[in-house]
Amino acid sequence: MAPKSSLRIFGICLLLVACSNGETIFFKGVPLDQPGVKDSLKKICQEDRSNKDDSCSFNNHRELIWLSYGVLSHNLAWLTLGKDDSLVEIEIKGSKGDMLAQVEPLTAKYGKPAKTTEQVTNGFGTKFDKEIFTWTDKRGSRITVESIYSKVDEGRLVIDSASSVEEKRVAEKSLIKAGKENL
Description:
Shape: globular
Order of helices and strands: HEEHEEEHEEEEH
Radius of gyration: 17 Å
Number of helices: 4
Number of domains: 1
Strand order of the largest sheet: 3-4-5-9-8-7-6
Distance between the termini: 22 Å
Number of strands: 9
């Protein structure tokens, strides 16, 4: 999807501070932006027998693992660690239905999300409504659920730490500036 939609999601959450109930966002009990969480992530990784020991080592900046989260029972997820080995991003893709099913438990835990709807078009010209739900905590960490991501039947859930949100904001701003200079 276009970078413009990412900027719109970010702007909506900044304007609607009420898109959470104040509950701090964690990933399965693991704090975001906090060094020293590798052991906790290894335990989460080892819960799924499909993960090999080397993928549970978290020796790389970014690891692809199998996990369950909320109502998702067995999905591939990218876990990204920051420079200080803190957890900064989790990205899970799944079916549109699976992603929309996540909204209810997330709302129960984090409060009413900010919600936007935008139209997307597939390669055949058919239009679809893409729903985007965003929860942001007081620290600036956020959870985003997109009903449609790279395909009309595939959605995505992303948990971003406050530092990841800021890094993406700076990158988006830089991209816009570079684009303006290239006109």
